[in-house]
Amino acid sequence: MLPPVIPIFPLPGAVLFPNVFLPLHIFEPRYRAMVRDALDGDRLIGMTLLKPGWRDDYEGRPPVYSIGCAGLISHAERLPDGRFNIVLRGLEKFRIHDEDHSRPYRLATIEGLPEAVTEADRTQLRHERRRLEALALSVGEGTEPPVAPDMPDEDLVNALAQYLTLDPIERQALLEQPGLLTRCRALADLLEMKVMTSTSWPPPMA
């Protein structure tokens, strides 16, 4: 269970998913302070995606999407100049309800959004996996699958959503899906559309 208030790290291009790892380089003073405080506490940071137009107020508090994913700092390297290299492991989705302005970095009052997977969902995920893996291979670079074949179905869906080449807003839409099975189907539909688009252009010569 997530605490009611967590620090959030808004970025324009990064979306974190549960059970997936995300390496980050922390250089801004306010977010160095965030990492120091997190390391002294529960090591939790919430990743959120900045909404379009964020450049107009980046030094302030530009709007973010209300759904994010909390991560645990699983690795931290403090550099001599105070910057950090960290790795977050995704834990759980959350919804932002409010923000606390008492720190130089952003704190959010949140509601955790755990994603329970029923036995019926697991059965459907096993059925959907082959389609998803085939589509991921079609849109990926090279000939190797982008994830290990023995990866659990739940982890495979989130790993593909994070590691495949997708637009940030597409990742955000996948994160906001109400459950893992719907995310799996939405991702497969998205990849199928990309495959169809790439194979139908340019049109054949008459």
Label this structure with key terms:
single chain, 206 residues, alpha+beta, five-stranded mixed barrel, 5 helices, 6 strands
How is this structure best described in words?
By secondary structure, the chain is an alpha+beta fold. It is 35% helix and 27% strand. The chain is built from five helices and six strands; from the N terminus they run ββαββββαααα. It has a five-stranded mixed beta barrel with strand order 1-3-4-5-6. Helix 2 packs parallel to helix 3 and helix 2 packs parallel to helix 5. It starts with a strand and ends in a 7-residue tail after the last helix.
What is the distance, rounded to the nearest whole angstrom, between the alpha carbons of the first and last residues?
Answer: 61 Å
Q: Give the biggest beta sheet.
A: 5 strands, mixed, barrel
Q: Measured on Cα atoms, how large is the radius of gyration?
A: 18 Å
Low-pLDDT runs of 5+ residues are none
Structure classification: alpha+beta
Output mean pLDDT.
Answer: 90
Please tally the helical runs, counting DSSP H or I stretches of 4 or more residues: 5
Shape: globular
Q: What share of residues are in beta strands?
A: 25-35%
Describe the structure in brief:
With 206 residues, this protein is of the alpha+beta class. The protein has helices at 29-40, 119-139, 153-163, 168-175, 180-199; strands at residues 5-11, 21-26, 44-49, 67-78, 84-100, 106-113.
